[in-house]
């Protein structure tokens, strides 16, 4: 069967795009850590068909092409559908547009019910645990449990989510790191009316600037009903527990619980920087549950810095014993939210968003953290500082 998969790669890379065709995996495959050639080389030779993993697993995918873009099991997808596929023990290293399942998803395609375990790394931009970049497509009900590393635009699920794309019902549990900017636990760059919803990240996230527990940059796009529990750190500015920088976008019904730190400025428990170059932004009904937020410059319990006008801040709360650059905060400003004692978060009333009531995706048990309905792998235990 692995020879048939290699045959598919040769066919697609020679110009047969499989548009309108359906390929089904009939059993598990072991690629034996042999160097893999991605299915679909670039926009000239993409895969356009449907690949149904049929709930099977491909083991030991190995790619070591640090000078080549579009790396993954699939290199370039154009309007394709990849579904019900597991990839275990991947070791993928590429240049730009590198992911476990695919390098790039384009043209209204989708990746659904897929996962990747192992490590994914890129030597340039757009690196993700599932897909390097998605443009005009969707990722749903998928996850990555391995560490993801790159230079710029790095995400636990997707590096870039652009042009009316979406990521939903998905999660990342590995550490996500970038040697430069735009790094997020779920997605690095979310832009142009794209969305992240019902997602979570539990690993540590690090980079220079534009670093967030869920997303690094959110431009004219939205984050909703999502959370981060890992530590988030940056060596420059715009570092946030949920989002590093938001401009003309929205964050709603989300929370973070890890430490957030930056050696520069603009660091916050929910968002590092809120600006208006692309229009007013909104942060509504979010919870900053972090033990600490620290920065050399501007910092706040909820938002590190606010630039411009036309923004909306509604119903945001924060743990009142959180330290902000070493000190607790007593005011209830837009930057710091309404302070609440740790005991407030032992009941549903302490959280600013609706739980245990449709159409809210949140389910809550007293004395725990809210978690998302129907998504695996979640730990609802309260962190020690909130007990």
The CATH architecture of the largest domain: 3 Solenoid
- In the CATH scheme, the class of the largest domain would be Mainly Beta
Described by strand count, sense and barrel closure, the largest sheet is: 29 strands, mixed
- For the residues shown, what is the average pLDDT? 97
CATH topology of the largest domain: Pectate Lyase C-like
Count up the helices. 1
Tell me, briefly, the overall form.
elongated
Number of strands: 48
Q: Which terms summarize this structure?
A:
about 375 residues, mainly beta, Pectate Lyase C-like, 2 domains, 29-stranded mixed beta sheet, 9-stranded parallel beta sheet, elongated
Write up what this structure looks like.
- The chain is mainly β and 387 residues long.
- It has two domains: 1-203, Pectate Lyase C-like; 249-387, no CATH class.
- It is built from one helix and 48 strands.
- The strands form four sheets. The protein has a 29-stranded mixed β-sheet that branches.
- Strand 47 and strand 48 (371-372) form a beta hairpin.
- The radius of gyration is 20 Å and the shape is elongated.
- 57% of the residues are buried.
């Amino acid at each position: 069967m692995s020879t048939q998969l290699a045959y598919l790669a040769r066919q697609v890379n020679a110009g047969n795009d499989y548009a309108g065709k359906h390929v089904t995996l009939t059993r598990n495959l072991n690629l034996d850590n042999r160097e893999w050639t991605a299915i679909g080389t670039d926009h000239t030779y993409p895969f356009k068909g449907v690949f149904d993993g049929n709930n099977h697993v491909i083991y030991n995918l190995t790619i070591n092409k640090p000078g080549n873009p579009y790396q993954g099991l699939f290199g370039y997808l154009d309007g394709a559908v990849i579904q019900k596929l597991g990839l275990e023990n991947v070791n993928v290293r590429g240049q730009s547009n590198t992911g476990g399942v695919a390098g790039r998803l384009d043209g209204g395609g989708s990746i659904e019910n897929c996962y990747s375990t192992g490590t994914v790394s890129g030597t340039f931009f757009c690196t993700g645990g599932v897909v390097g970049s998605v443009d005009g497509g969707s990722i749903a009900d998928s996850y990555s449990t391995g560490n993801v590393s790159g230079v710029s635009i790095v995400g636990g699920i997707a590096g870039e989510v652009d042009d009316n794309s979406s990521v939903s019902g998905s999660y990342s549990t590995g550490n996500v790191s970038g040697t430069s900017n735009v790094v997020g636990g779920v997605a690095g760059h979310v832009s142009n009316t794209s969305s992240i919803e019902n997602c979570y990240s539990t690993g540590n996230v690090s980079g220079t600037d534009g670093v967030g527990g869920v997303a690094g940059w959110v431009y004219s796009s939205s984050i909703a009903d999502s959370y981060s529990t890992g530590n988030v750190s940056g060596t420059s500015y715009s570092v946030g527990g949920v989002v590093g920088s938001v401009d003309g976008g929205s964050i709603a019904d989300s929370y973070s619980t890890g430490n957030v730190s930056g050696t520069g400025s603009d660091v916050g428990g929910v968002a590092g920087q809120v600006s208006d170059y692309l229009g007013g932004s909104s942060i509504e009904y979010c919870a900053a549950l972090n033990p600490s937020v620290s920065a050399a410059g501007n910092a706040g319990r909820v938002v590190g810095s606010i630039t411009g006008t036309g923004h909306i801040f509604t119903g945001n709360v924060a743990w009142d014993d959180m330290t902000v650059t070493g000190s607790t905060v007593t005011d209830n400003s837009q930057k710091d939210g309404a302070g609440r004692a740790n005991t407030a978060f032992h009941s549903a009333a302490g959280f600013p968003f609706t739980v245990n009531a449709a159409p809210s995706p949140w389910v809550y048990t007293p004395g725990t953290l809210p978690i998302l309905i129907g998504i695996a792998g979640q730990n609802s235990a309260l962190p020690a500082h909130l007990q």
